[in-house]
Amino acid sequence: MSFEHEQVRIERGPRSGLPVIVAVHSTTLGQAIGGCRLACYPRWQDALTDALRLSAAMTDKCAVAGLPNGGGKTVVALPAGTTLGPDDRRALLHDVADVIAALDGAYATGPDVGTGPADMATIAERAPYAFCRPPEAGGSGDSSTHTAAGVVAALHAVCGAVFGSPRLAGRRFTVVGLGRVGADVARRLVAAGAELAVSDIDTAKQRLAGEFGATWLAPEAALRSEADVLVPAALGGVFTARTVAGLRCAAIAGPANNQLDEPATADLLHRRGILWAPDFVVSAGGIINAVAVELHHETADQAAARVLGIGDTLTGILRDATRAGVTPAAAALALSRQRLADPR
Ligand code: PHE
User: Which pTM was predicted?
Assistant: First the structure.
């Protein structure tokens, strides 16, 4: 297998002592962008593997979304059970900022699992390459609501393709993962009149199920729940040969990055007759909004219209897939390859 990444930096942060990993997969279409993830890993090597895969997915995400950007990602491997106090957090984010600054603009970061707008402002103190700072600090703010809006647009497209109507009302959805994006998607589904089941590894989130009037499920049960559409909104790697065998849904579309354990799992889903909307298409709302507002200085309404464009993009991909007799994943990757081969 070939090494695809343009550059990968791994440094032990001088302030934090933690491994800071920044992977720049591609700048073919422009500056690489991708969020900064702070998460616990058994070994730092696992964080590296994650950074390599997540940054490659960002290249496809940007290309399919039609953005003038490439893919990158930052991952900091925290030892199990770490909770960062404010001073340690600041020190770590400055370590991250220094690694990003050394890349001289090849890469810009944004929020991801474990980080938010305030952290982007901290990074920006030392590196002018951070999207989604709070509005009062000059950024476009929290990206999760825009990601959620894009997911809902994708769910309309999926329902149109599978059930012949884009209506969400009366359809059954299971949202797996109630982080910032997942909880927002759940709220929007309830508002649209959908029937909802939710789950999270954190049982404290059960409170949200009550608030939404949703059925609460344990995570393993959620993956096997009967639903029209399953919405993965937690960490990656949920679909494997084993979990795919137990699925009881017609379609899958959600914002979690890298949902498949390996690319071939898309074929398993296809053979089971389950439509899998590629995660890198569904989850692009956050970056689409940030780039529209911060790089192109568009209004909130213009940016929101671009985010909703995810629906048409996905409809086109699903149509291409049906015509060519390939999986939606293959059709989406073909679109990405085409954009990367002919940047304009
Ligand atoms: N977490 C976002 C994603 O995976 C990353 C991001 C959002 C980067 C907004 C820049 C701006 O797409």
Answer: 0.95
